[in-house]
Design brief:
329 residues, alpha/beta, 19% strand, globular, binds nicotinamide-adenine-dinucleotide, binds (2S)-2-hydroxybutanedioic acid, Lactate/malate_DH_C, L-lactate/malate_DH
Length: 329
């Protein structure tokens, strides 16, 4: 018997990430090739015509799993009974900006949307914030939702999967091993240049990647800056921020959360105090996903170098949290 459709809300549906994301959700790449979906598309009033155009193209793909579509500029409509929400709609940064520069411009969006999700969505809704600065926006949405109750505050995530995937590709090139052989990658912290991409636990076909690389200077001076500043390098090269790779990472995050992962995956999740990260801070942690749920991997050793990196990215997130405190009153 075929499954009942699930409702997937996507904000910023007329934007560049939306244009890569929606077709892959509708084709079953996110939730499985047997899972029908209803797309609930939110964008600003002035973008509604463009959203209609995207919907026309979705129709023209004749996706067997696409069971319905709604376009709206009203968050209460977009999030109604939603099982999954992908919060992409926000301003991207341009050349010379850091993601934190978007804090006030974009933060306000997430108080409204967090509340609307908590009031309207399925109680078990899974929320992924892509719009930058995504950790703090997820924190804002989660805090707004917490005031309403109903939904699970641990289910408001920020997207660090793009950083995780970028780190895997850099390591595959350095070690001359296929990406598919690499397991147990971790990216700690904020989706910003302070993130700490940590391959100390990473293996390739059972071999230690740290031993294969065996080059601390490369780690410190090449790998970390390359992964941390990859978003800016893409903006410099394309004149626009990453879109297809961002959509791909969003698909990966939701896919693994919903259907399970056979490896560690990096997710920006509200801290439960693990590794000394204060509760509630949305932080990149190594996670395992099973039965539609996620769990932070416990017990990893944090050496002095790693603790310093983790403290730096945490400090930045705490500053961002302080900067938005007024929005959450
Ligand atoms: P874009 O400008 O192409 O599209 C953004 C869309 O959001 C537009 O259609 C706009 O009308 C819409 N929008 C703006 N405010 C909205 C609101 N309040 N409600 C609903 N829709 C709204 O931008 P993009 O390239 O698609 O990027 C979107 C966001 O994703 C940016 O903040 C960007 O920085 C971020 N991003 C994050 C990652 C990540 O790894 N976390 C990666 C890439 C991009
Ligand atoms: C990225 O990492 O590519 C995105 O967060 C976009 C940006 O502003 O860097």
């Amino acid at each position: 018997m075929s499954k009942a459709p699930v409702r997937v809300a996507v904000t910023g549906a007329a934007g560049q990430i939306g244009y890569s994301l929606l077709f892959r959700i509708a084709s079953g790449e996110m939730l499985g090739k047997d899972q029908p979906v209803i797309l609930q598309l939110l964008d600003l009033p002035q973008a509604q015509k463009a959203v209609k155009g995207v919907m026309m193209e979705l129709e023209d793909c004749a996706f067997p799993l696409l069971a319905g579509m709604v376009a709206t500029d009203d968050p209460n409509v977009a999030f109604k009974d939603a099982d999954y929400c992908l919060l992409v709609g926000a301003r991207p940064r341009g050349p010379g900006m850091e993601r934190a520069d978007l804090l006030t411009a974009n933060g306000a969006i997430f108080t409204v949307q967090g509340k609307a999700i908590a009031e309207n969505a399925n109680e078990n809704v899974k929320v992924l914030v892509v719009g930058n600065p995504c950790n703090t926006n997820a924190y804002i949405a989660g805090a707004a939702a917490r005031k309403v109750g109903r939904t699970n505050p641990n289910n408001y995530h920020g997207m660090l999967r793009l950083d995780h995937n970028r780190a895997l590709s850099q390591l595959a090139a350095k070690t001359d091993r296929p990406v598919s052989s690499l397991k147990k990658m971790v990216v700690w912290g904020n989706h910003s240049p302070t993130m700490y991409a940590d391959y100390r636990f990473c293996t390739s076909n059972g071999d230690s990647v740290k031993a294969l690389v065996n080059d601390h200077a490369w780690n410190n001076d090449v790998f970390l800056p390359t992964v941390g500043k990859r978003g800016a390098a893409i903006i410099d090269a394309r004149g626009l921020s990453s879109a297809a790779s961002a959509a791909n990472a969003a698909i990966d995050h939701m896919h693994d959360w919903a259907l399970g992962s056979d490896d560690w995956v990096t997710m920006g999740v509200p801290s439960d105090g693990s590794y000394g990260i204060p509760a509630g801070v949305v932080f990149g942690f190594p996670c395992e996903c099973k039965n539609g749920d996620f769990k932070i991997i416990q017990g990893l050793e944090i050496d002095e170098y790693s603790r310093e990196k983790i403290n730096k990215t945490l400090g930045e997130l705490e500053d961002e949290r302080a900067a938005v405190a007024d929005m959450l009153k």
